[in-house]
Design goal:
Distance between the termini: 36 Å
CATH topology of one domain: Arc Repressor Mutant, subunit A
Oligomer: single chain
Radius of gyration: 14 Å
CATH superfamily of one domain: Winged helix-like DNA-binding domain superfamily/Winged helix DNA-binding domain
Strand order of the largest sheet: 1-3-2
Number of helices: 4
Helix content: 25-40%
CATH architecture of one domain: Orthogonal Bundle
Length: 118
């Protein structure tokens, strides 16, 4: 799987799917990811230090990105993890990952924003 290309549609979908802090984590991992495999291996501590965030916040953001279909995490015993940077298919139709099963989509194929006033 190639690392997703940054497009306006991808950015709009990402910003609409997760909190701003998680967007920063996704772009950080994207920038560190291998172009061909989309994998990155920084520790939560490294991410937190580089982004000047708390490690607990980074962990929350990683879980949010994973649950929304923007990140695949391969957890390895001993606090080592690898991250595969992905984008849901509605944001990156060419090679994106399908949205999580529990996510409903509107007729445009996008998840409605939650918690936002209409």
């Amino acid at each position: 799987m190639d690392r997703p290309q940054i497009t306006p549609a991808l950015v709009i979908a990402l910003v609409g799917a997760v909190a701003r802090r998680a967007v920063a984590v996704w772009f950080y991992l994207w920038s560190r990811a291998d172009r061909n495999t989309a994998k990155a291996w920084p520790s939560v501590r490294t991410i937190a230090e580089d982004l000047e965030m708390k490690s607990g916040h980074v962990s929350e953001d990683v879980r949010a990105l994973e649950s929304e279909g923007w990140l695949r995490v391969d957890r390895i015993q001993g606090n080592k993890s690898s991250y595969t940077v992905i984008a849901p298919r509605e944001a990156y139709p060419e090679t994106g990952a399908p949205p999580p099963h529990s996510v409903s989509q509107n007729r445009n194929g996008l998840r409605p924003k939650t918690g936002a006033a209409s």
